[in-house]
Amino acid sequence: MRFRKMTIKWWLIIHASIPVIIPLRICLNIPKITIPFFIGLAVIGQIIGSRFLLKSNKYKGNEQKDHI
Q1: Which of 15, 37, 59, 68 stands the most exposed, by the fewest C-beta atoms within 10 Å?
Q2: Cα-flanking dihedrals φ and ψ of residue 15, to 5°?
Q3: Which is it for the CA torsion 21, 23, 25, 31, positive or negative?
Q4: 15 sits in which H/E element
Q5: Which long-range contacts (CB under 8 A, 24 or more apart) does 51-54 make?
Q6: Do residues 53 and 2 lie in contact, with contact meaning Cβ atoms separated by under 8 Å?
Q7: Whole-structure pTM over 0.85, yes or no?
Q8: Considering only CA atoms, which of 12, 17, 5 is closest in space to residue 44?
Q9: What is residue 67's predicted lDDT score, i.e. its pLDDT?
């Protein structure tokens, strides 16, 4: 699912992991120095997810062309 950039839905999806990561980090007593690592993982996850979505859309587009 894709949302137009800079909309409320897009902003919520991008930041949805924060309420999970912060309490998890506190409960597991993970040091603050790992915060940049978690931010990096979140960015990498967004990049991988967008590429996966683009590839699946290309596959669906090719599949539709084959039937015509």
Answers
A1: 68
A2: -100, 10
A3: positive
A4: none
A5: 53/2
A6: yes
A7: no
A8: 17
A9: 47
